Predict the structure.
Amino acid sequence: MDLGVGIAFLAAGLVVAPQRRTAVAALMVATGGSWLAGDLGAGLALVHRGPLVHLLLSYPEGRLRRPALRVVVVLAYADALAYPLARSEPVTIALAVTVVAAAGTRVARTNRSGRRSSALALAAAAAVMLAPAAGAVARLAGEPHNRPALWAYEAALVGCAVVLAADLRWRRRSDALTGLVIDLGDLEEGATLREKLADALGDPALTVGYWLAETGGYVDESGLPVDPAAAAPGTAVTALQEDGARVGVLLHDSAVLDDPDLVRSVAALARLALVNARLQGQVRARVAEVEASRRRIVAAADEERDRLERELAEGAQRRLGLVAELLDDAPDGIPGQVCAARAQLREFARGVHPRTLTESGLAAALDELAREAPLPVRSAVSGHPLAPALAATAYFVVSEALTNTVKHAHATAARVTVTVAEGVVTVEVADDGVGGVDPARGSGLRGLADRVDVQGGTLDVDSPAGQGTRIRARLSVTP
């Protein structure tokens, strides 16, 4: 069994080496060689622990990507080279626990495509480190000779070498493709194509270049030039084409994609993801154009409302005032009818666009609404002044809500509050009426919801039957 451990790791390294898993193969050979060297003298009996722990914590890339893992491996090499320290039972137990914990943390932090391999390394670490830890515990308990623990340790080492070599030889290719399909199919908001590919392939230095026909070159997601000809040594260049036309290029570690079939499969997946990302970008641009167009329409409508209100106030209302003065001696009723028409025209103009809102601000305009409402209305506005578009939206939310209250709620009082905090404007109108409002059945509330949505906000209606109605709009200060 002792000889079998060394041969198993040496053979595993030879099996893995043709796949250009250079680092992993070297660690396997080092583990097997140092194990066999242990027969040359007691001082070398535990030297194999260093490369063994290094292998388990860096599998399958052979790289230690996190500082914490590097610290654990350095401690393992120090333990392996200091024979008196390595023979200490507490040190053996502590090393076993540390290695298993580090392997478990690595599984938790690994992306989905590499999680199976890191989980396999965790299982191997647990199996390999459990036996010496159990032997150390037994020695501490007064049992100096524990041959079953030694045999279990050697059997676990042989199994570790065989399983890891088989995993790299037959399973790695399909796992890489499966992981890429999963990761590239989940390009969530905020994650770039480069980040997903780098995470899936385990190559943080991977670069994605997008082909720009107008410049005849590649750029990355930040718009910076990407020159495949200037790639660093050891970097492979994989071209991405769609229907014979260049769409991009991948610059990646040659050891990450060393199988020609795997390279072609990854390139196909990356090409599809690149085209999909480009289409998503175009859709987002179109949506942004539509949103900007909606805002322009609302702004133009508000400007037209303001212009119409000024024309009514400065034209028709002023002329009606002059007519009323000229008709002071007219038959009874005529001057009163003219004054009533003038008042109705003033109310209409205020509904089109209130002059008070433009001249004095939102708080004054809402106070005016509250004073002229046919029921008691309390109004409170707090926070800094709003931009004209936001102020107009808040005003019309209150105006429409109070109109519905007067017409349908049978309320005895209403309350209006407007607050500005943390970049959000909250407009709330509540009454003590009969409730039961259905936003889907009222064109006024649907129109308000559309207008609020244009400002990047939401409109909520809470109206349980018999318990009053609460209309709340939340608007973003920077839509």
Observations:
- The chain has a mean pLDDT of 77.
- The first helix runs from residue 2 to 16.
